[in-house]
Amino acid sequence: MLSDSGTPSGNKANQIAPKLVRKAGGRPVLLQPPYNASQDIDGIDALMVLGRRWDVNPQEYGEEEVLDPDMVKDGAHTDYEKAIIPLALIKRMPVLGLCAGMQRIQVVLGGRLEQKISDHRHGDNAGHPWASDKKFLELGHIPITIVEGTHLAEIRKGIQGQVKARYPDLLYYEVKCFHHQAIRANELVPGLKAAAHAQGGSGTIEAFEADPKGKYRNQYIMGFQFHIERMLNDPFSKALFKDFIVAAEKYKQRSGSIGYQEQESNRRENNHGQIR
Fold first, then answer.
1. Per-10-residue mean pLDDT for the chain, 276 residues long?
2. Rounded to 10 degrees, what is the CA torsion of 157, 163, 167, 168?
3. Residues 6 or more apart from 190 whose CB is under 8 A from it?
4. Residue 251 burial (10 A CB sphere; 0-12, 13-18, 19+)
5. Which site from 12, 108, 150, 245 is most exposed, i.e. has the minimal number of CB atoms within 10 Å?
6. Domains along the chain?
7. CA distance 171 to 192
């Protein structure tokens, strides 16, 4: 799990997401400094890129003017994201991006973002999107429309028995959403396809997945602009985490990966041998 460990909001996600991964049957590993993408990638079975406080730098996707420079903070974490995501995709490892993690995947693959939006801030979240941790915890809900025929639609339909009273429409759901940048409806990078849109005029992409007819076909790539880690005890959130873990298990069976803890143990033994 790739997290933004240096920020208050990142720390909140670090605390919640690993617990939900564990509940879904996975074994979370928090990837933190010192970063080494080429070594770390060999010890995991899937990569989850969590949200973070800071924007993806608009200059990375060709914008000359940065509208909110105070929201940009590049460094080792950004460099690590840009290094490890392509490695995961080359290995055909499951990759999941949440909020800014979804945006990072889009940009790493050569795509663009809308660098500043205002229509995804709700209720007490009005104003600066990262005004306080309290506001981050009080995320607003927005309605989304899920695209028929997508993998996400299959997951949504699979929980209908649990949510039918609230959501009789199989392609409708309300999610916790709070973000400052977004992927425009017509600017999703080739190889990915939209799996959900925000309802209303913007059509903002709220979820994407690998296009079954594109260059990443037969790969597990999913991104959610909304915060599934904040939808505690929600059947949709649980199903999405479980789906990711199932994909990780399938990858492990195919690849025969040894796991991060065993890799670290082997590395320490090798280093000890070299010192001697």
1. 52 76 94 90 95 81 80 84 96 95 95 76 38 50 94 98 96 87 90 92 87 96 94 95 98 78 48 33
2. 70
3. 211, 214, 215
4. buried
5. 12
6. 8-270 (3.40.50.880)
7. 19
